[in-house]
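Ticket #4471: complex job returned nothing on first submit. Input attached below:
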Amino acid sequence: MTDIASGGPVAPRRSGPVDPTASTTLRPLPLGATAITGGLWAERQRVNREVTIPLGAEKLEAAGSFENFKAAAAGSKGEYHGPVYQDGEVYKWLEALAWEQARGEDPQLAAWQREITGLIRDAQDRDGYLNTFEQVTGPAADRFRDLPFNHEIFNVGALTQAAIAQVRTGHDDGLITTARRAVAQLGATFGPGRRDGVCGHPLIELALTELFRLTGDPDDLALARYFVEARGHGVLAAQGTDRFAGSTYYSDRIPVRQTTAPEGHAVRAVYLAAGATDLAAETADPSLLAALQAQWQAMTGTKMYLTGGLGARWEGESFGDPFELPTDRAYAETCAAVASVQWAWRLLLATGEPRYADLIERTLYNAVLPGISLSGDRFFYVNALQLRAGHPEAEDERVVSNGRRPWFGTSCCPTNAMRTLASLSHYFTTSSADGLQLHQYAPMRIRSGDLDLEVATAYPWDGRVEIQVGSGGDAAWTLALRIPAWAAGANLLVNGQPTGVAAAPGSYASLHRRWSPGDVVRLNLPMPPRLTRPDDRLDAVRGCVAVERGPLVYCLEQADQPPAALVDSLRIEDGPLTAVPQPDLLGGVTVVEAPGRIGSSPDAAPVTLRAIPYFAWANRDLGAMRVWIPAVVQ
Amino acid sequence: MTDIASGGPVAPRRSGPVDPTASTTLRPLPLGATAITGGLWAERQRVNREVTIPLGAEKLEAAGSFENFKAAAAGSKGEYHGPVYQDGEVYKWLEALAWEQARGEDPQLAAWQREITGLIRDAQDRDGYLNTFEQVTGPAADRFRDLPFNHEIFNVGALTQAAIAQVRTGHDDGLITTARRAVAQLGATFGPGRRDGVCGHPLIELALTELFRLTGDPDDLALARYFVEARGHGVLAAQGTDRFAGSTYYSDRIPVRQTTAPEGHAVRAVYLAAGATDLAAETADPSLLAALQAQWQAMTGTKMYLTGGLGARWEGESFGDPFELPTDRAYAETCAAVASVQWAWRLLLATGEPRYADLIERTLYNAVLPGISLSGDRFFYVNALQLRAGHPEAEDERVVSNGRRPWFGTSCCPTNAMRTLASLSHYFTTSSADGLQLHQYAPMRIRSGDLDLEVATAYPWDGRVEIQVGSGGDAAWTLALRIPAWAAGANLLVNGQPTGVAAAPGSYASLHRRWSPGDVVRLNLPMPPRLTRPDDRLDAVRGCVAVERGPLVYCLEQADQPPAALVDSLRIEDGPLTAVPQPDLLGGVTVVEAPGRIGSSPDAAPVTLRAIPYFAWANRDLGAMRVWIPAVVQ
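Support reply: We reran it on our side without changes. The output follows.
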């Protein structure tokens, strides 16, 4: 490992996106310790590698993103391409390249990374400042002139995350040097005794804490702490350049320690909360952690869609008030779901509480995955829970009624999805002082230290999970298996025998023993389809129910109904639900059949409703869709 | 009457805001022919005159509006006050001053009008250009540089409407000269063979057609036609300065003749439709009129709240898709309701169809009136149909959870309400070749030609309306009385005798006879409280019902319920409703009592729900409110 920067040599562990150095309840496994080997997620990772990431190269090139770096390197003033955060799109894609190379070498991925890392390095100003928008369009005096809007600090955050990925994967082309210089320039500009300011879009907080974890440089942690604590005092409004809706939008109305529920722009609020959670963990700050846990509880209890989607309002891409959760105009940005996974993961590491892993599961399947087509080359920015028939034309490219789009002028969602899928296995397992925890289920191989486990399952289509011990080490340890909150009747066997260990939904089943090669754990998470009734306070879906099965939220899409059964007029009955595997449908899904009626009149015609997983909708002709289905009133 | 401008002398009739010169099915009565003499609307007019209009003077002064004119007159560049449409706020208030003086002389109103009319005259550039924002802040070359945003043409429209009011009321301080010079400058700038362009915010279309009606100058009508027809071809997007969501926002995506339902910014879309309706009437264009009628039908059938409120989305203050009508985040801007009254009035004049008068009634009571406090000095910009308990703090001054506000940075709603109330009686009656039509009911005196009628009623609290003939003229004529669509069982007597004339809801009852002094018509519009069920496609209010009585939409407000009965948890039963007059409540209203339950569990406690008219909510401590009430499922 090379000496990576002026901060002195570091000897990074091979690790994933999050690697706490302080004592946390749970710890991520080293990079590569968990590999997804088959099933739904392996297929999504394959498509991500073979289709989506190469598409990113093409689209970022076409958007002029790389030209921006070249222009900055040449010192030329003139035409800049894309929104002010275009650099950040490149960085997120670069982060995906690094994680993806850790999953498997590839000369094209390596070549892209090498080339673009070089462009970025060359674009950096001598003092470390790097932001091609300002470099290409503005006089130097304009640096950080428009903190609410210009995303300069945000971009350094994304750069730093990509650089950390390069180091941790061992596929390092030197981006970390560029990142540390940019961070040093930020540190020389902002903070106590220097300029007061934060970025309109949080992200730097996550990046700086993680950088500290990599470098051990206390300045990095101090700057993270500064950006977290400075926020919430209207500091951006005080800049006088705010062109949006004020401090709420920027999570700058209330300090994070006093915030009772996230508000404003959802992606910003959740990145900030995730960064603050990192800070709480890294600085052992229990009161900050408690505040964040309460905030998370309020968010998930009053401001979250059944899918895990966040952000009820198009206006300001923001959280709504409690229980304001429209289905047709749900925003539920794909990026907000990615941010939510990141936040829940940090809370899980800090606390070990299963509710956070439950939400990661719900969000990955039902809020991140819906953002990417099965083919990997079409995307949703917004994830509405309902589309009526007729879906009028709309100019806004984000509108769901336009169907999945091949890219966006603001391409955060595709690039965020790329880096998430490329690093996905990071979020599936952890270790602790007394053993190993399985939080998510998929076919996977887990090798850590002297342990070697193989997980076999057809999850999420089948709730049976088999864990084979290849090597269990010498000492006794605890294998903890998450029992999802939905998994009533879960049970497990070790080597075919009942264990007496509780497998209560919403807990971890803990098996403590000395594990031997050939030991087999069979976990059974029953997955009968179920009808979910909304909270009585959810006005937007009163009188409706949703179909769920296992971790999946289902929806009615027009393509699966008989021609006379228009989704907009269907009603569901409180009758038996049937799960029907359909290997040839939508890449292989299990549909759920339910008794229903066409229309709401007492003599409405009976019909069998066919629901598909929500994540798979809009992969055929775009038709009406709904997650929440009006119930036949008995 | 003075010679008002270079277009030659005109001899205007005393008339109200709309005075077609072409043949229309119905014609407005001359100004002053109908006077509201008592009851709810007389009280609202009194408060408008004594409180709201003087408040307008104070707030417009405080906002620096008048300073803008002075600065422009002085030719000084420098500080401009308020949004780019601030001039327009002054003009709408000036329009209210004129109508109000026609209702009764007042030295203060006259002094304000004289002074401000002079300021405006002095501010006008030599070539007729008048827009203090550009005059004070920009070089002359910047004129009309930013048509999507700068409201320069919109402001001339509002100026022209105020000027027309001055002429028609006979309280003329010469604003018409200023307006005609500004219009001439527009005409020299835009149109065939000149510059292609329309204003981001329609209004000029209404103003120019009305100006033509006043002046007879064909150039005015031609320019109105140009602005109507040029729109809908993306002309604003082609300007390249659009900073919003594209052509949809500006009603510039589809030509008005091809538009099937209004879309985009609600106020803009409806002003445009109203202006196009004027044009269709004035140019006898039946295909344009038919297109507008179809558009209106689609709007009212799929994009309108029960209250008559328009605009489902905060984002872009815009119409939603069909059946997208959230209650909590309803936008339903007060100005959109004012515009809707204006549009429906023009359709009523053109066609004589009662549905338009029905909507004017619904909208005045339930969408315009809620925008003004009973005290006349607090306002709603946005008219949500639901407020949950807790109503979190919000920075945006428009948010209903902040309660009624004393004014707004964008003060269109208060000034629009002022001019509407000051000219209200204009919208209540019409004449036609064969007689007189009563569209709205209130205590009023109607004197037109040799007719003299007195209307006595306690409407909207009591549906009995008595019309006394003071003078009926010599010939036989038809008295047509609107039977509202809600008035099942309506009946009427002439001089105590049944007439055999049909009084079907949603029609006009037509009494043809020779009327003699002392003749009395007694119309009875039964007003039992009723439960209104939503369209099955209205997802946002599924499982709910609304209480209505007569023309009024009701709501549950927390202040009227027992302390243990929190509005957010109330359910309504399908039981008997009772109307209870409450002379001391909220200025005198009739409340509706309904059987209900506290909570949705089968053993929920019974409770009597007390509903008040929606227009009267938020005049006490701000508590939870809802129009649509979840029904107990039987």
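Residues 436 and 479 of chain B are 5 Å apart (CA to CA). Closing as resolved unless it happens again.
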